[in-house]
Every structure is written in structure tokens, then in C-alpha cells.
## 1
Amino acid sequence: MPRRRRRSRCHPGALPFPVMTADPVTAQQLSPGAEVPATVRASLSPSRAADFKTCPLLYRFRSIDRLPEQPTVEQARGTLVHAVLERLFDLSPAGRTPRAASDLVAPQWERLVAEQPELAALFTDDGEARSAFLRSAAGLLQGYFTVEDPRRLEPAERESLISAVVDEELLIRGYLDRLDVAPDGALRVVDYKTGGAPREAFEARALFQLKFYALVLWRTRGVVPRVLRLLYLKDAEVCDYTPDADELVRFERTVVALWRAIEAATAAQDFRPRPSRLCDWCSHQRLCPSFGGTPPPFPVGPNPADSLRDSRSRPVRPGTDE
Ligand code: SF4
């Protein structure tokens, strides 16, 4: 039986939570495909915002210097499992079986390699390592079936880009793994986690990401999601979190403050390292002063940080499971 985390570990507030309407004054709606309002000066995704919160220098390396990062096997496995789960729901409900998911693994890997040739460099041996990798992805998918029965689900959205304007000038946006809508209109945001890294090191980041999506949905649909769900496939574990409107108001202030801090750091060209346990997963240690390195010269020209350009085209999804 899958273990279901005690709600109190994720949620300090009262339950159940009533569906509420968003304040239409402080935020503008932005439907998919709509023009970005002229007032918008920047955009921010949960990943980049979390980078800055974790370590300002990491944010700089990724969003301003745009240093390449070779995907790790673990990240590639996360990307593959997400791709299979997305395609699984293209099948008829009765066809969404563990066997069908396993059968999708190899073709989806071939598709990803064709789209992201750097993934092919992960396996250059005689094929045994690649086969073991595909088996490990199939194993994670079996973990999925112990926590959910996809034959009984009909997601409203999968891998969808959602966005909203806050504070008139900031576009917040991100890709949902899955959105479920109940007959009464209640929303459930679902995020698949496949990583093998210590949970506690990344849980705060995962919850930050989900609150980010909850804020966008509230601002665009006028409904506070009833459930933010993390599905940990490796551990076959579910973590549900129930946000409330007051919390999302505070979270919106946090996001705007974070953006202003990013702008100030950019103007001052001052992004400091903040060492933590997460440094073990950082690709840029050799350039980091905390590890004896020296960052490259600060890029000149327009600030490319998380530019609006990114919000208009879907980026190749990096392995988003840390
Ligand atoms: S190694 Fe650590 S402190 Fe340095 S940039 Fe990476 S996350 Fe930041």
C-alpha cells in the first residue's frame, strides 16, 4: 500500500478549505496565447525564482550567464517518466495499464533523444547502461501505479503553460505536470517527483513551485486550488497540501519581492553564493567562489534574465525533478 503522508507535515492550516474568488484588482488575467500586456517588464518561472531563493549566484549562472548544464542520468530519467505519464493519458482509460506505460518508455526515450541530442551522450557504452536506465524508468512508473489509477482519471490539462500578471509588471508562468478539475470545479495541481535526492533537501523547493502554480491559477481562474499534490514515484508516496487565499496573497508579495531583489542584484551585478546542501547538485562549483572558483565577467547588454521571450515559447523541459 502506498504511504500517504500525514497532512500536518505539509499543511499547517484548517481543512477543508472553501473555494474562493480571486481579487480582480491586483492582478490581470492572461489566457493561453494572449498578448503579454505592455506594462509587463519581466517574467519569472518557479524554477528560476527558486534558484534565486536557494542561491543568488546559481540564479545568475543559469538565467544571466546562461551556462550550459549537461543533464544528469537522474534528470533524464525524470524527463522520460514525465513524458510517459503525459502520453499515458492519450490512451483510452481502459488502456492506461502498467504494461502500456512500460511500452511507452523506449519510444519516448527515442523521441527525447531526437529532440535533445545531448541526452544521447549519457550512454555511450554497448547499450547495457541504456537498457538499465530504461528499466529504472519503467520501475518508477510502476511506483506511479501504486499511488494512482489513471484509468479513473481524466486530467483537464497536462504539461500546460500557465501564466498570470502580478504587480502589473511581472509575468509569472510555469508548466504544470497535470491539472485535475472535479465536477464541482475544485482544482487539483499534480506534480510528479522522480528524484532520488534526499527529500528534505528539495521539499521546500517543490512546495514553492506548487504554490507558484496555485497563485497563477487563482489569478487566472478565480479559484484557489483545493489540493496541491506531490507524487513521489520512487517512494510511492503522496503529499497533499491545501493552500488558502491569505497564504497566496502573502506568497504573491513574496514573489514580487523576490523579483525586485533580482532586479536590484542585476543592477548592482551582485549575485552572491549561498552554500548549502544543494551545492552537491550544482553544476557550477568550479566557477563558484565558495569552491575556489571565479565567475565569468558579468554579461553586458540587455538583461537576458528570464526574458519575456521565454514566456512565448515552450522551453525544452530540463529534468525538473531534482
Ligand atoms: S556551488 Fe553552491 S554556492 Fe556555489 S553557485 Fe552552486 S549552489 Fe551556489
## 2
Amino acid sequence: MSLYTEKNAFNFPSGMSRKKAKSTSGVFEEADKFRRATYFRTITVAVLGDSGVGKSSIIRHIVGEAFIHEHIPTVEEFYVKQITYRNKTCEIHIIDTSGTYEFPPMRRIAIQKSDAAILVYSLDKLGSFSKLEKFMDEIESCCADSNRRIPVIIVSNKTDLPNLSEPTFVNTNGERVSACDHLEDKWKCQWLPASARFNLNMDVILPKLLDKLSPEKTLERSPSHIWKRRFRSFSDKS
Ligand SMILES: Nc1nc2c(ncn2[C@@H]2O[C@H](COP(=O)(O)OP(=O)(O)OP(=O)(O)O)[C@@H](O)[C@H]2O)c(=O)[nH]1
Ligand SMILES: [Mg+2]
């Protein structure tokens, strides 16, 4: 299947169709290839996490669909979202995996196909936090097969729910640290608090992943304490 869409078609000289231009000269094909590399990226992202943590809700929000209050367990879904990132059009293919049904081979294939992953846990379900380790091991082992590493963002969902507390950990210096510091130290990956229900950080997940995937230097990186502060002020309101 070609991922080239008419929306992203380049401007050929007037009166010349893309097909005709291609057949007229190989030069146009070369220009086409070059421009595609410059202006158009296709990235596949797997979304993993325990049952009911809100993976599908987050994805639905990202692709512009409405929030659903009931839990409809996913088998596997596939979404496409186009975003503009640093003047490039990116087509993001999102694989929504199942947390409810145990399909390890399907999950492994999803990870192997992916350039990046989003790991979701939910603040109202401590068990979903413990399961992050399992998903991280799976990502690492799938990527080791193909000798690569993929960026991962951990999303802590349902921050809108009242009376929730993040687990705390003791670090190697014997200090008590928050879950986000623990995760950032342990796996060196970014952590984001989120609410699919009230649109907290939904719009920043994909750009953050693209920052990690981008070979250019990241222009601006928010220190993690800013996220933590935003998270606290959000919880204070609820
Ligand atoms: N309060 C609150 N509820 C949420 C949020 N995100 C999702 N939910 C609810 O959590 C339940 C499960 O959401 P899903 O998105 O279906 O969860 P999932 O991770 O895709 O679950 P599986 O497909 O079974 O693995 C639904 O009832 C959602 O309405 C959130 O940010 N806040
Ligand atoms: Mg789902």
C-alpha cells in the first residue's frame, strides 16, 4: 500500500500530472523521492498497557474522536493521524493493542513494526503500574531481535479522578522519590501525566515522541518538574 497521499502531492509544472511527470523524466522521480524524504515522514507507534487504562481513549482523542464513557475492550485497532511537525508532514500510524485479551504474538508484531511506543498506566489501578515492567521487557526483547532501540513515553492516565496518589519509591541514595522520577531514572524515558477525559497533555504526546525520533537537536525540552507542577495544579483543581 502506498502511503503517498494526494494531499501531500508535490507541485509539478502546471498542466503536468504526477503520472505524466514520472513517465516523462526520471528527474521528476528523483525530485519526488527527495521531497518525500524532506517533507513527509511515516512513523508507526504502538500503544501498550494494561486493560482499561485508557489506551483507546487517548488514541481516540488524538485522532479527534469523542470520549466514550464505557469500556469497550480492544482486540487490535489501527489509526492514522497526520500532523505537521517542524514544517514536515508526518503520518503517524497508531496501533492500539489489547490490554484485556492476552495476545503476546500480536503485541510482539505490533512492537516490531513500530518506531516508537507509548506505555500507558492508570492512576486508579496500581497493578497497571507494576505491569509497565512487563511491557518494557517485551519492548526491549522485541527490539533486541532487530538490534535497535525505540523511544518510549510513559503516560500516567486518569489524573482527573479524585483522591489518587502515585506510588513512591526509594532510590539508590535511600531517598523517597515519586513514580515519575523513578521511571525516568530506571528507563531514561519521558513521563507525562494525562487525562483522556479532560484533554490533559493529549496534544503533546505525539510531538514529544517525534522529538525523540528526530535526528535534529530538540529545540526546546521542558524539564520534567514543569510537568509535575502542571500535574499538581491539575489535581488541586479536582
Ligand atoms: N476518568 C477517566 N476515565 C477514563 C480516562 N481515560 C479512559 N477512561 C475510561 O476508562 C475505561 C477504559 O478506557 P479504554 O480507553 O477503553 O481502555 P483501554 O486501555 O483501551 O482498554 P483495553 O482495550 O481493554 O486494553 C473507559 O470506561 C473510559 O471511559 C480518563 O482520562 N479519565
Ligand atoms: Mg482499548
